[in-house]
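re: ur question from earlier - yeah i can do the single chain one, its not a big deal. heres the input i used so u can compare w yours
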Amino acid sequence: MHEGAASSLLSIEALTGGVFLLTALGTVAARQLLTCFNLFVLQSFLLSAAAALLGWALHSPHLFAVAAITLATKTMLIPWLLRRTVHDEVYRIREVDQVLNIPTSLLASLALIFLAYFFTKALGPVAASAPLFVNLPIGFAVVLLGAFTLTVRREAVAQLLGLLVAENGVFFAGIAIVPNLPAIAELAAAVDVPVYTLVVGLLTRRIHSEMGTTMVGRLTALRED
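and the output i got, formated as tokens:
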């Protein structure tokens, strides 16, 4: 592939990364659980697209395998598991309760994004080469935003989505750090993530059936008979 074509693909991948980061911000700002769910699906699709673009630009068949595995598990299997295991009423909740209000959460999110940028910039030449220049700060920022979502949300399913968003950030950075990592490593992670999604989904469904809520704070009211 000509250098100009590879540069164009990396530019498109950088644009994909920008939208990828916006979906993480949207997860922080979303008031409805269904919106968080849809943003996670979109983010996972963008992760798959970014892996395919990098695979094309870097001539890495491993990244094409990663893109296919991500598309199958994170945009199809995991959303299907969440919709099947979590009670439909949970998705009809008008607003997701959280510790901080939306404006404060967005300000904290911007601070985390700047922190991710300055932290990766401090790595110097390690992060200066493309595509690490784009993927590393964005991936690290999404990890922080996912962890922040996990911290401030009070709904069990919203917290699970925050964890999945953080995991997407890890893989977004990882596809640039080790583009030739064998696909078997991604396949191993692709098996683990649906398993813990299934477990949490089933537990959430059972808790909702027993208590009528998935608010984490109210689960402290559980007592052994």
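Residues 139 and 173 are 5 Å apart (CA to CA). not sure if urs matches, ping me
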